[in-house]
Amino acid sequence: MDDALALVDERLERLLAEHDPEGDRFEFMGAQFDLGLAWVWFPEGHGGLGLPPHLQRRVDERLDAVTPHRPRSYDILGHGMGAPVLLAHGTEEQKRRYLRPMFTGEEIWCQLFSEPGAGSDLAGLATRAVRDGDEWVVNGQKVWTTVAHLARWGMLVARTDPELPKHRGLTYFLLDMQDPGVEVRPLRQITGEAEFNEVYLTDARIPDANRIGEVGEGWRVAMTTLMNERVAIGGTVTERGEGSIADLVEVWRRRPDPLHRDRVLRLWVDAEVARLTNLRAQENRDAGTPGPEGSTGKLVYAELNQRIYEEALALLGPEGMLYDSYEFRQPDPEEPPSTDLRRRFLRVRANSIEGGTSEIMRNIIGERVLGLPGEPRVDKDVPWSQIRRG
Ligand SMILES: Cc1cc2nc3c(=O)[nH]c(=O)nc-3n(C[C@H](O)[C@H](O)[C@H](O)COP(=O)(O)OP(=O)(O)OC[C@H]3O[C@@H](n4cnc5c(N)ncnc54)[C@H](O)[C@@H]3O)c2cc1C
Description:
By secondary structure, the protein is of the alpha+beta class. The chain folds into three domains: 3-104, Butyryl-Coa Dehydrogenase, subunit A, domain 1, CATH 1.10.540; 109-216, Butyryl-CoA Dehydrogenase, subunit A, domain 2 (Beta Barrel), CATH 2.40.110; 222-369, Butyryl-CoA Dehydrogenase, subunit A, domain 3 (Up-down Bundle), CATH 1.20.140.10. It has eleven helices and eight strands. It has a four-stranded mixed beta sheet. A four-stranded antiparallel beta sheet has the order 2-3-7-6, with no helix packed on it. The protein is globular and about 65 Å long. The termini are far apart. The chain binds flavin-adenine dinucleotide (FAD).
């Protein structure tokens, strides 16, 4: 066994000997962070051991075996995006302050990127941040902000110089969601639930110490966020036959219909190919910002999930049309996710929109993987203030 693996095993044994995995969650996860087992590829002192990322599987598998019902994360956006952003662009002080409570779930993070007039064209966003001494004053509106109602911190991209071309006048901040200038209003989704929100920013104040990256470098930091978001959404490696395909196989066992056999098998094969491709991508990935393979994984994941649940509902027949309740609720991350296939069928419609639409994923793959000509970008060098907006 090599030294790196031995170190991970030694830390795991220490963690489990000295802390009760079924006890207080914040205490256990805090100890996991302190022992470098939060993200093994992060530096020591910041939740890691400076080891290759694939060794995290050793940690996850061992802890999953001890606490099979506990999710690996209570802060999907923080773990998936906030942590790699802080690692790549944060100051030492920011890493020390934010990473540990994010890992334990004591402080939840959200992503304040999309606006009513800026989604796929994120660089066109209009929320303004104006410097006032050691602070920034922020005004604008964000939308589709997942878990904003639970979040303590928001990853915010705002325009700090409207006279520069759109990608160059942006700056990245960490916004305190408890600031009096922040108003969060729930938005209902097709499932009936409100996972996401509108967020109104009226003279919200951010200390300059909460700026991530340099002034005007917001696009670069936003790209790190988005590249990691795609991997967080589409790059999870499950065991063979687990994940959404397990739902389909389960319906098939209850209602085997020979007319659907070929389609179920085809989906099983496609799910396995996607899983193996993700596994290969994960093993090849160095620590650092993921490349365009994240867009491929995200595109495949979104389309496969939609096909899988369409097939599951077809097998359910008329039962697939019944839906429990459209009663308004905001999902509780402490509760296990619903296993209702009809809810899942509706929820996966969002997979081809959230984290960048499938059309945008295809554009990225076309340009960055296949080397096809880029789409025309007529406003690329025009000052943002002079671009016509709807
Ligand atoms: C469940 C869910 C959760 C979300 N959570 C968050 C969040 O936490 N934080 C956040 O900031 N955002 C979040 N979003 C927003 C998401 O990132 C945007 O919805 C997405 O980027 C698309 O932007 P848009 O909705 O403005 O659509 P638009 O950009 O207006 O796109 C409309 C249509 O035009 C197509 N299109 C646009 N540009 C092009 C192009 N250049 N080439 C080809 N086709 C194009 C799109 O593919 C789409 O079909 C969430 C969305 C969903 C559904």
